[in-house]
Design brief:
Structural class: alpha/beta
CATH topology of the largest domain: TIM Barrel
CATH class of the largest domain: Alpha Beta
Radius of gyration: 21 Å
Distance between the termini: 42 Å
Shape: globular
Number of helices: 14
């Protein structure tokens, strides 16, 4: 499999939910869209002309949830209706799933391919083994049809594995060692983990170390992990993807057509978090200049989405010319400025931004400074052994 690199590193990849982004007159490096979104909103295909690279998530994990299987838009994807045991034991069912998921991506003119996958809570879950089987059979299928597009694996896993470091090494071994010659990169999707609200610093630290190690081998894109994706991008990830001011956390059993609620908040990159509409109005918060804002609050949903998009593109853009060490230093400075801004808004306007995650993120970044690539560690060990042999 040929090597693959994104046009920018690290990169922010917006996950679009309708065709609005095509009306903003932007040309983006990369855009991601779920397969069922294409089925629900045929006009969303117009975004293909506004992105250099299009990624279509096959969302095959949804086939195990009856709520998705009953939805007409999901049915349009023509995935088999099967239980995990059927997928595990029946090669014909797996083949239908593989062929249809690849067909859906190719018909949408996706530039890279994602192998079909299921959500596995941990490595003891039967679906973890099924995922490896699906990946192996996808490789063979692509070779059979002589498809040369880059193949990525989606590691869709429960957050509990990040409390078990030894399991993380096993995941890396299985995905990287077993498929090193066939994969161009990884997407990492973690169930029910919010980088801002979690109080488990050890879990965040283990996640960061996992991404650091995995990214030594191939590009790693983090999916839907709020602004902690920026922290992981400084540490080693090639970038991260999320919805625009919504859909920032992955939930394995989330409905595919959850009704949209009014967006009564706006993202404030100054504090890596949100302000509600009343707070934004109180401090006379200014939207990103490229967001076409009216200058008053509350702004409309599309203005807030553009504001969110441009700020994430900006922050990632500032890291693209930096070394890993410089990226970490940059993010530490950004967090330091965010702390001061939170205090400033609190003193001047009585607003109390929820910025408790600052200390946890700072701790992760500080520890990450000392991490060395495993190849470098191997070289140091070899030199040490040579010295001992003298």
């Amino acid at each position: 499999m040929k090597s693959f690199s994104f046009p920018q590193n690290p990169i922010y990849i917006p996950k679009v939910q309708d065709s609005s982004i095509s009306k903003w007159k932007l040309n983006l490096p990369v855009v991601c869209v779920n397969a069922f979104t294409l089925a629900r909103w045929p006009t969303v295909n117009s975004i293909r002309d506004h992105a250099d690279i299009l990624i279509v998530d096959p969302v095959t994990d949804r086939i195990l949830y009856g709520v998705s299987q009953k939805k007409k838009n999901f049915k349009k994807l023509n995935y088999p209706d099967a239980e995990p045991e059927d997928i595990y034991s029946n090669k014909d069912i797996r083949q239908v799933l593989i062929e249809q998921s690849i067909k859906n991506q190719l018909q949408a003119r996706a530039d890279i391919l994602i192998a079909p996958y299921l959500f596995a809570e941990d490595t003891d879950d039967t679906k973890f083994t099924i995922n490896l089987t699906l990946l192996s059979e996808t490789v063979r299928y692509l070779e059979k049809i002589k498809e040369k597009k880059s193949l990525f694996a989606m590691i869709c896993i429960g957050n509990t594995v990040f409390n078990r470091p030894i399991i993380l090494n096993h995941i890396i071994d299985r995905y990287n060692d077993d498929f090193a010659d066939h994969l161009s990169g990884f997407f990492l999707s973690i169930n029910d983990l919010n980088g801002r609200s979690t109080t488990d610093e050890t879990k965040l630290l283990n996640l960061a170390y996992f991404v650091f190690r995995l990214s030594e081998y191939k590009p790693v894109i983090i999916k839907r992990l709020d602004a902690f994706g920026e922290i992981l991008s400084a540490i080693g990830a090639s970038g991260y993807s999320s919805g625009l001011a919504m859909s920032e956390t992955f939930l394995a059993n989330q409905k595919d057509d959850t009704p949209r609620k009014p967006l009564k908040r706006i993202y404030a990159p100054e504090i890596f978090d949100y302000l509600n509409d009343e707070e934004a109005k109180e401090i006379k918060y200014e939207c990103h200049p490229a967001s076409n804002s009216s200058g008053s609050h509350p702004e409309g949903r599309h203005i807030k989405a553009q504001h969110y998009l441009h700020h994430h593109l900006d922050r990632m853009g500032k890291m693209q010319s930096l070394s890993r060490e410089q990226k970490i230093s940059y993010m530490l400075k950004e967090i330091g400025k965010a702390k001061k801004k939170a205090v400033e808004w609190s003193d001047q306007f009585g607003i109390l931004p929820k910025f408790l995650h600052a200390s946890r993120w700072t701790s992760v970044l500080e520890k990450a400074k000392d991490w060395k690539p495993s190849k470098q560690n191997d070289e140091e060990l070899s030199m040490l052994l040579a010295e001992l042999e003298k």
